[in-house]
Amino acid sequence: MVALLSSLTVFLCLLLPAWGCQGAQCLNCHPHHYRERGTCTGCHRGNPASKRKNVAHHLLIPGRYAHFTMGKTPAVAQGNRLVEQLACRRCHVIGGKGNRLATPLDSLLATRPPGEITAAILSPAQGMPDFKLDEAQVVVIVNALFAEVGKGEKQGRELPLVVHFEKADKPVGDVFSRKCGPCHRMLTMRHGLLGAGTIGPNLSGLLTPFYPSTYAGTKRWTEEHLVLHLHNPRQVSPHTLMQPIVLNTGELRDLKAIIAAQE
């Protein structure tokens, strides 16, 4: 009978938090704060029914990542500015908007703790730019990402995520890898990661609306702009270190096709 009553109490705490069980087992270890905001899990996720730390803290959102739960805070605003400045949507879907070249972040945030996402940004995977951010900057970015979840329109059909397996002795045959790859990298949906250089900017999503407007300083990149830049980079950007890239008609056609396949 005692066990039955105990189970019933936990069930009611989870189902009806307004009855005074906002913290459930959380308050055995943590002081109550922001009582007016409701349950602990409303801001921090986790499992309030367990006394076991590893279970109670499953997918926990620590306080520094929970600013997004309090509305338009300075942390969220700063994070949004960085998301736009770094053009994260050129590869990721955030708030329902962005290219699907890499993992959609809206769904990732539901299955990964924020600390794991922070570590992934600080030590990026192959193909992801290293933005040289400090941990404080990444924390506000993660807050901004959480704030965007659920804002976008639901997609009628989720596109499959294409996985590319690379061989160590893969021949370098495509025109991007030969002509652009020594200085640039580019993630594409059809061809995977191309190029190995980090001297020049990452070109993932170059011809999409989510790439920064850096052609001649303020314009979006188009195929025409790309051709002009390849022919005479310093005519477009006087201080660039990039040399002219000589391409024949077939190579130029193939390069434009590869870059256009990023969408």
UniProtKB/TrEMBL annotation:
<dbReference type="Pfam" id="PF13442">
    <property type="entry name" value="Cytochrome_CBB3"/>
</dbReference>
<dbReference type="InterPro" id="IPR036280">
    <property type="entry name" value="Multihaem_cyt_sf"/>
</dbReference>
<dbReference type="InterPro" id="IPR036909">
    <property type="entry name" value="Cyt_c-like_dom_sf"/>
</dbReference>
<dbReference type="GO" id="GO:0009055">
    <property type="term" value="F:electron transfer activity"/>
</dbReference>
<dbReference type="GO" id="GO:0046872">
    <property type="term" value="F:metal ion binding"/>
</dbReference>
<keyword id="KW-0349">Heme</keyword>
<feature type="domain" description="Cytochrome c">
    <location>
        <begin position="168"/>
        <end position="263"/>
    </location>
</feature>
<feature type="signal peptide">
    <location>
        <begin position="1"/>
        <end position="23"/>
    </location>
</feature>
<keyword id="KW-0732">Signal</keyword>
<dbReference type="InterPro" id="IPR009056">
    <property type="entry name" value="Cyt_c-like_dom"/>
</dbReference>
<protein>
    <submittedName>
        <fullName>Cytochrome C</fullName>
    </submittedName>
</protein>
<keyword id="KW-0408">Iron</keyword>
<keyword id="KW-0479">Metal-binding</keyword>
<dbReference type="GO" id="GO:0020037">
    <property type="term" value="F:heme binding"/>
</dbReference>
